[in-house]
Amino acid sequence: MRVILVLTMMTLFLTSRNVCAQATQPQGNPSGGVPQSLQEKMHQLQAMVEKRQQEGADLQPIGDLMQGLQPLMQEQKFVEAEALIDRAINLAAGLKPPPSRTPPEQASQPLQPPRPRGLLLQNQLWGSLRATIVDHESGRAVKARCYLTDAADQSWSPSGAITYVKPLERHFIASGEFQIALPPGAYILRVERGTEYRPVIRRFEIGATEIHDEKIELARWVNMNARGWYSGDLHNHRDWQEMSALLLAEDLNLAPTLTNWVIGYHTMPTTRLTTIPGQAVRRVDATHAYSIFDNEIEGLGPASGAVDLLGLHSPLGVNNDQLGPVYTAYTEMTHRQGGYVDAEKITWRDSAALIALGQVDFAGLVYNSFTPHGVEVGW
Fold first, then answer.
1. What's the predicted TM-score (pTM) here?
2. Cα angle vertex 252, ends 249, 253, to 5°?
3. Fewest 10 Å CB contacts: which of 87, 95, 307, 320?
4. How far apart, in whole angstroms, are the C-alpha atoms of residue 96 and residue 345?
5. Pairing state of beta strands 200-206 and 185-192?
């Protein structure tokens, strides 16, 4: 069973590369292939499994978990796949050999599988990081965005956490606390909670079998709500079920969720969102809310750009014969629902036409092409 598991994991890795080579370029992954971080983690897990196999550990729990990997890779759901690999790595780190088994340090020919860049895992016992995150003033636990990297700039995230993985941006959401198993070495932890809190950066080292504790106190430097200003992010392609945690972690008052995305004349809105229970606009608490039926309409003509349709009470339904060179069929339906039209990028060609037609409620000046890592000039 253990040998079959190792061979299965290798097959899944090769299958994933083949799927990505044949598939069209996925959104958010310009190279069109498996993200480098995911490839490294799969190699890391493979090495750990072979090591645990040599030690005689029971690998059945990892085999059960890995059954969910192949469908994610085939659908190019790389963020979910990387989260699953993270869980498998944490699980493998905690597996123990039977008491009668000779440890690998004493074996005459220790196994030496390939190692991912910067990690020397053979014959090492892992430690763990245990972190708590609180508001400095109240002392209460708060959600936050976290970046955890090792000396090789490899990103790490705890099992089960909400993760975000793009070519440059990789972070996870912590709900007041988290714990993660880590190989010995030096690490950097950066914790943020939107722009009104000062970020906290900690540098530390993890030793073998060590439990390293970090208490992060996030201090607010300004309260814009008290001054009559409210924060928001109008362009969110995220799972609507995660929005409640994301709003609190980023301290966003408002965040529409673009659960539907229409690209080109032949990609029509879906009605599957009608099965979502509850209200279209949902309150997390008195000062945080999000909506779940919002749309992005993009690419209905050469270089035409995009609009976001926000505050919708139900999904839109549009036929091909209703479409024009600009998005008026969509924008008029949005206004009839009492929703709002965001021109998204003021530089798009159709933005000027839609403004002239009285269809735009607001437009983005600093939009999603501006990131903490620079400006995506190509867009």
1. 0.66
2. 135
3. 320
4. 54
5. antiparallel
Q: How far is CA 190 from the centre of its chain?
A: 16
Query: What is d(CA 71, CA 4) in angstroms, rounded to the nearest whole number?
Result: 19
Structure confidence by residue, pLDDT tens digits, 124-151: 589 999 999 999 999 999 999 999 999 9
**Neighbour count for residue 17 (Cβ, 10 Å):** 15
Distance CA(204)–CA(84), nearest Å, equals 26
Give CA–CA dist 306/161, Å, rounded. Answer: 31
Which residues does 323 contact at the CB level (< 8 Å), separation at least 6? 265, 300, 329
Tell me the pLDDT tens digit for each residue of 280-304: 999 999 999 999 999 988 877 666 7
**Residue 187: alpha-carbon gap to chain centroid:** 21
| Phi/psi-derived region of residue 178, left when phi > 0, alpha when psi is between -120 and 50, beta in every other case | beta
Cα 235 to Cα 27: distance, rounded to the nearest angstrom = 14
Contact 361, 341 (CB under 8 A): yes
Topology given in CATH for the domain delimited by 127-218:
Immunoglobulin-like (2.60.40)
Question: What integer best gives the mean pLDDT of the chain?
Answer: 79
Q: Which of 364, 301, 353, 302 is nearest to 331 (CA)?
A: 353
